[in-house]
Amino acid sequence: MTAPSLRPYQRDAIEAVLKARREGTRRLLVCLPTGAGKTVVFSQLARLARRQVLVLAHREELLTQAREKIERAMDGAAVVSIERGADRASADAKVLVCSIRSLHEERLARVIQGRDFGLVIYDECHHAAADDNLRVLRQLGAFDDGWTGTLLGFTATTSRGDGKGLDEVFERLVYTRTLPEMIDDGYLAPLRGFRVSTNADLQKLSKGGLDFQEEELAEAVDIEERNALVARSIQELARDRRTIAFCVTVGHAKNLARSLNVLGVPAGIVHGAMPSDVRAQALAEFREGRTQVLTNVGVLTEGFDDPGVSCVAMARPTRSEGLYAQCVGRGTRLHPGKKDCLILDFVDLSTLSLCTLPSLFGAPRDMDLRGGDVREAARVWERIQFDRPGFELEAGAVTLPEIQERAASFDPLTLKVDGEVRAISGNAWFSLGRHGVGLHFEKRAGRANEVLVLKRGARGKMWEIQLDGRSMDRYSHMEEAVQAVDYEIDRMGRFVAASARPDANWRRSPVPDALAETLKAKPRPVFLGEALRLAVWERTMAAPPVQVVAPAGKKASRSKR
């Protein structure tokens, strides 16, 4: 066996880890998308380690995969053993690959005894914040002040379904590469997508938590009509592509496989409760092409490495970007003859935000790619946002050409003010989209004053009133802030109140040259009222996002990388 050659970004990741460790960081995190070769990276780091190495993994497939790749990196120079179930690692092993689930307190104490672990590698470490996994890390001493070892986590996603942050475990994210970067550089397969709308109703499902409750979700989507639609879509759109379908429950996976088989599409099933030999047989039949589609429940989201997969069917709707990225990642590996991977998003009726292929790349989640390349669509959307700051889409499926057409005709001056604001105020309030509303009036003739009601948070008194750039007060609802402003304007007298009305004569005055020169939009407005509104819009869209400060004792959420 010979050690695999490293790609440039893999060498960069290794150097980033070594540099951070030299700087004194002990608990480090590396985030690389599925198919980027995380195991290759940590195998090289295990080879460089002077002391013994402990590799923690969750799934059976990950243990064997890790041992094989570390043995290749070691090139026969050291013993690599697995500790799991009835298997005991040999005493002379430099590297121990362990199932973290099997490391109960007594067993872990036996593993530690007589060994000196200088490097602990945690594969798929987005699980690390779970209580029992934290117990293992504490018992290893990873959080002790005097610990001289290194905890190194690898994951394809830093987000968890329960909302617990990995910053509770790791001190620093030392290296990351995104899925779009890896595709652009030619290391992962391009992704194309189709959006398939279903009539399954998710609107009554529990809205709490970061994702749906599985039992409720299964009841909503595991219905004969939807399964038949999913099966027909796979048959028509995936054609001869080897396909993985992600389902909610075992029953859902069985029913979808049955619907596929009825159409003559050979389908198998794998799930966590299957005996290991039966599961291995199902995977072998899929790899050998005896089954075209493999329905599964949770099993294939991690540790499944089959580069020949060229279609992923998301029969399981999710609100979790991390889970969605893991599922999609099963089809991103390169393979001879494979040009791309097709993602089928089955979109149900919901008022909640469902993850889709476009949303994974920063484009509108309701975008219908119609089989197009998601990278190209994301680039077009990025350009639209640059050329048309503040342009927003209403909810509902829309194609890329339709988005481009709407963007071309977008004019912020035509935005309508929220109906509830119009119902309570006769003043000339104008819309700033999701950011809030604004109003111009005159305290003195010939000098316009500006009042804005802007959204400054996600809860509590999140609507801030600004008068000529100065913060004045906050309210829980935008309508309350508007009423407060209108009240104060009325108190200033008849002249001021009249100047706030839509028909005030000053609004139709010519635009001063100095103001006109500051406006980016072409053609420039003719009247002063429109020019002032446009100036506020352009300034608001160009402003950096507001940083929401977390209350004392709580950590503010980090921006996405």
Task: Produce a short descriptive summary.
By secondary structure, the chain is of the alpha/beta class.
Q: How would a textbook summarize the main sheet?
A: 7 strands, parallel
Task: Assign the CATH topology of the largest domain.
Answer: Rossmann fold
- The helix-and-strand class reads alpha/beta
Number of strands: 20
* CATH domain class of the largest domain: Alpha Beta
Strand content: 15-25%
Helical residue percent band: 25-40%
- Which parts are unreliable, with pLDDT below 50 for 5 consecutive residues or more? 546-561
* Tally of individual domains: 3
CATH homologous superfamily assignment of the largest domain: P-loop containing nucleotide triphosphate hydrolases
Rg over CA atoms: 28 Å
Q: State the end-to-end distance.
A: 37 Å
What does this protein look like?
- This protein has 561 residues and is of the alpha/beta class.
- The chain has 3 domains: 8-177, P-loop containing nucleotide triphosphate hydrolases (Rossmann fold, 3-Layer(aba) Sandwich), CATH 3.40.50; 184-408, P-loop containing nucleotide triphosphate hydrolases (Rossmann fold), CATH 3.40.50; 413-542, no CATH class.
- The protein is built from 19 helices and 20 strands.
- It has helices spanning 8-22, 38-48, 60-74, 105-112, 131-140, 179-184, 214-221, 224-238, 250-262, 276-287, 321-329, 357-360, 374-387, 400-408, 419-424, 478-491, 494-499, 513-518, 528-542, and strands at 27-31, 52-57, 80-83, 95-99, 117-123, 150-155, 172-176, 191-201, 243-246, 267-271, 293-297, 311-314, 341-349, 367-368, 398-399, 430-431, 436-444, 447-455, 463-467, 470-475.
- A 7-stranded parallel beta sheet has the order 3-4-2-5-6-1-7, covered by helices on one side. Strands 8-13-12-9-11-10 form a 6-stranded parallel beta sheet, sandwiched between helices.
- β18 (447-455) and β19 form a beta hairpin.
- α2 (38-48) crosses α3 and α13 runs parallel beside α14.
- The chain is globular.
- The model is unreliable at 546-561 (pLDDT under 50).
- Residues 19-176 form the Helicase ATP-binding domain.
- Keywords: ATP-binding, Helicase, Hydrolase, Nucleotide-binding.
- One of its GO terms (molecular function) is Y-form DNA binding.
- Residues 222-368 form the Helicase C-terminal domain.
- InterPro entries: Helicase/UvrB_N, Helicase_ATP-bd, Helicase_C-like, Helicase_Restrict-Modif_Enz, P-loop_NTPase.
